[in-house]
């Protein structure tokens, strides 16, 4: 057994043990922490599989934002899971076993782990994406070329999903559902601790600067609009957790968030309409600079990634503000 396979086996064993522990645990806070651990180990697996962009997203969303939102949800409910009668567990167990059996049976058709002769390596389209895209798009990061250019329309659909999901959650939690409840005064504030206050104030500009780096460096390395948007949101979430919701909303007003949620999607669609008015297809960035198509591709991808980052960051931040603004009910 090679070291590569051994590391993967160990991480897979940790994932299985964590999943089993989550199913057996009734303390919701502990289950949330284990879910964050599950996402962290999954991100490590993605890194080992050279899927760094996916690992970036898993770490930022699964470990960071999702954990904060789950903790915010626990603040609105009880901390232990209700006991489910045994007769109601059986259908769920049957579905899990059947689904697992189907997946295990389908996995028999997969190529050997790490095989150089797998269809992914031998299919002609691999040559197109990995090599010809460097000439067509002029961007070193093939993932960015695929997501923002070749598959730009599909990525627009993903952004619409984020936009719609954000509106749905905000409709349930935000001012569209009920007037904001006044939270009872907390016994303590994190900002009262000088170390936490100073460290947070020092980290905030670094977090936002790193988000900008991830956004504008996504053409050359792991990153892009989705990852940068989540990192932006994590910075505002950290600020809100330490200094309070009121001060966080002074930095990013709620009305501005509602505007930015729509602005990113409108910019994305507007870019597609602009390329059509210039005589090209929808999201055909070559027409942005007909004399230098590669420059047009760079410009179009930059606009797309920025639009994605704006919408993702705004949705995540607005959802956190909506959770934090609700009163605690036990």
From TrEMBL:
<feature type="domain" description="MrpA C-terminal/MbhD">
    <location>
        <begin position="14"/>
        <end position="77"/>
    </location>
</feature>
<protein>
    <recommendedName>
        <fullName>Cation:proton antiporter</fullName>
    </recommendedName>
</protein>
<feature type="transmembrane region" description="Helical">
    <location>
        <begin position="55"/>
        <end position="77"/>
    </location>
</feature>
<feature type="transmembrane region" description="Helical">
    <location>
        <begin position="6"/>
        <end position="22"/>
    </location>
</feature>
<dbReference type="InterPro" id="IPR046806">
    <property type="entry name" value="MrpA_C/MbhE"/>
</dbReference>
<feature type="transmembrane region" description="Helical">
    <location>
        <begin position="228"/>
        <end position="245"/>
    </location>
</feature>
<keyword id="KW-0812">Transmembrane</keyword>
<feature type="domain" description="Na+/H+ antiporter MnhB subunit-related protein">
    <location>
        <begin position="195"/>
        <end position="317"/>
    </location>
</feature>
<keyword id="KW-1003">Cell membrane</keyword>
<keyword id="KW-0472">Membrane</keyword>
<feature type="transmembrane region" description="Helical">
    <location>
        <begin position="29"/>
        <end position="49"/>
    </location>
</feature>
<comment type="similarity">
    <text>Belongs to the CPA3 antiporters (TC 2.A.63) subunit B family.</text>
</comment>
<dbReference type="InterPro" id="IPR007182">
    <property type="entry name" value="MnhB"/>
</dbReference>
<dbReference type="InterPro" id="IPR025383">
    <property type="entry name" value="MrpA_C/MbhD"/>
</dbReference>
<dbReference type="Pfam" id="PF20501">
    <property type="entry name" value="MbhE"/>
</dbReference>
<feature type="transmembrane region" description="Helical">
    <location>
        <begin position="257"/>
        <end position="279"/>
    </location>
</feature>
<dbReference type="InterPro" id="IPR042106">
    <property type="entry name" value="Nuo/plastoQ_OxRdtase_6_NuoJ"/>
</dbReference>
<dbReference type="Pfam" id="PF04039">
    <property type="entry name" value="MnhB"/>
</dbReference>
<dbReference type="GO" id="GO:0005886">
    <property type="term" value="C:plasma membrane"/>
</dbReference>
<keyword id="KW-1133">Transmembrane helix</keyword>
<dbReference type="Pfam" id="PF13244">
    <property type="entry name" value="MbhD"/>
</dbReference>
<feature type="transmembrane region" description="Helical">
    <location>
        <begin position="89"/>
        <end position="108"/>
    </location>
</feature>
<feature type="domain" description="MrpA C-terminal/MbhE">
    <location>
        <begin position="121"/>
        <end position="174"/>
    </location>
</feature>
<feature type="transmembrane region" description="Helical">
    <location>
        <begin position="198"/>
        <end position="216"/>
    </location>
</feature>
<feature type="transmembrane region" description="Helical">
    <location>
        <begin position="299"/>
        <end position="325"/>
    </location>
</feature>
<feature type="transmembrane region" description="Helical">
    <location>
        <begin position="159"/>
        <end position="177"/>
    </location>
</feature>
<dbReference type="InterPro" id="IPR050622">
    <property type="entry name" value="CPA3_antiporter_subunitB"/>
</dbReference>
């Amino acid at each position: 057994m090679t070291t590569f396979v051994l590391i993967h086996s160990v991480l897979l064993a940790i994932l299985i043990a964590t999943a089993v522990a989550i199913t057996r645990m009734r303390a919701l806070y502990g289950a949330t922490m284990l879910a964050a651990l599950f996402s962290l180990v999954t991100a490590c697996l993605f890194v080992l599989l050279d899927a760094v962009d996916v690992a970036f997203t898993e770490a930022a969303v699964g470990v960071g934002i999702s954990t904060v939102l789950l903790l915010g949800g626990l603040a609105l409910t009880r901390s232990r899971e209700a006991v489910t009668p045994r007769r109601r567990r059986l259908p769920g167990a049957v579905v899990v076993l059947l689904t697992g059996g189907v997946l295990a049976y389908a996995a028999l058709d997969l190529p050997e782990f790490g095989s150089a002769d797998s269809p992914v390596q031998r299919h002609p389209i691999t040559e197109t994406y990995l090599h010809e895209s460097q000439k067509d798009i002029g961007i070193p990061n093939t993932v960015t070329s695929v997501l923002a250019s070749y598959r730009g329309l599909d990525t627009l659909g993903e952004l619409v999903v984020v936009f719609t999901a954000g509106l749905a959650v905000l409709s349930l939690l935000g001012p569209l559902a009920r007037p904001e409840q006044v939270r009872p005064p907390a016994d303590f504030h994190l900002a009262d601790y000088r170390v936490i206050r100073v460290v947070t104030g020092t980290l905030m500009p670094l977090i936002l600067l790193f988000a900008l780096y991830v956004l504008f460096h996504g053409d050359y390395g792991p990153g892009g609009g989705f990852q940068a948007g989540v990192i932006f949101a994590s910075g505002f979430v950290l600020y809100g957790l330490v200094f309070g919701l009121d001060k966080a909303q002074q930095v990013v007003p709620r009305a501005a968030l509602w505007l930015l949620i729509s602005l990113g999607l409108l910019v994305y669609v507007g870019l597609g309409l602009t390329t059509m008015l210039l005589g090209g297809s929808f999201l055909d960035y070559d027409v942005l600079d007909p004399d230098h198509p590669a420059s047009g591709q760079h410009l179009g991808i930059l606009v797309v990634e920025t639009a994605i980052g704006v919408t993702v960051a705004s949705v995540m931040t607005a959802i956190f503000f909506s959770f934090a603004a609700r009163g605690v009910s036990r």
